[in-house]
Amino acid sequence: MNHTIDFSRIPRERLPALLRTMPKAELHIHIEGSLEPEMIFALAQRNGVKLAYPNVEALRAAYAFSNLQSFLDIYYAGASVLLHERDFFDLGFAYLEKAAAENVRCAEIFFDPQTHTARGVPIQHAILGLSHACRRAHAEWGMHARLILCFLRHLSEAEAMATLEAALPWREQFIGVGLDSSERGHPPEKFAQVFAHARALGLHGVAHAGEEGPPAYIEAALDVLKVERIDHGVRSVESPALVQRLARERMPLTVCPLSNVKLCVFPTLADHNLPELLAAGLCVTVNSDDPAYFGGYVNQNYLETFAALPALGAREAYTLARNGFEASFASAADKARWIGELDAHFARAAAA
Ligand code: ADE
Ligand code: ZN
Asked: Which listed ligand is nearest to 71 at the C-alpha?
């Protein structure tokens, strides 16, 4: 916490501009979840892929989800238009362009290779197209963009291991592994060996846990997979002992408020437990998850969450942005530079 900024000098009506302009990190974004309906149709045409929907409006109308699985079914179908390295570059660069415009300095991006290799797409088409987009974002805007390879937890550990092995010729193009897809019935311990192997290779580890699954899944992600961040983790509040542990270990939670409402984890944003998690001293961050499907990119997540929750003000905005930088896998020097920029941004706002 920064003790030199007088947050009380920043009135509520200035929050939206502050949230938009503050430098921030995004640590929970599935690149396939940034595939906008317009791009789905453009790529379908370019690649000769047949879609189940006649047009963008009909596809968008199908984006009404009752839980995680109802979303995943449509999300995997949308990704079927991604075939060539160029498609992955276009997808990654379109996201990074939006993120740069939203003052994202650091993006750690998930991708799901098994969604593509299952359709016969070589894994390097995804890895090389996306890593090229990351390098281009650095050249254009000085953005720090890195990739995290996610395993689909509804598939077997042997398939996850084969995916990791297939990716190893391009080991330098990604910084970690993650675990996503259907959470219920697929506990983290199913992937103990592949996470141990990834760790031995020097890769970071993160896992979705406690989105729909119970607190025990968060504990298993920590104890068995030895992850360094928990993606979502909102159901941790059901276990006070776990909340205490997450605070003590300063374990980051990459929370995605709009996603949680769209997938019915919370009925409305006003019911979201983000203020409770922050008040418990947890290292909470704000992220977009699958912005093309859930109603907005990272700034929209900040804006709508702060508008819905009166407990969130300028101090919380600072804390959330700072947590994002601290929880990233970037170097200590990069983190210090971004936090310095954040401090200056809030100091200026408090002096205005
Ligand atoms: N894949 C894409 N978005 C996801 C989410 N919110 N939970 C699990 N898997 C996902
Ligand atoms: Zn996610």
From this structure: 1
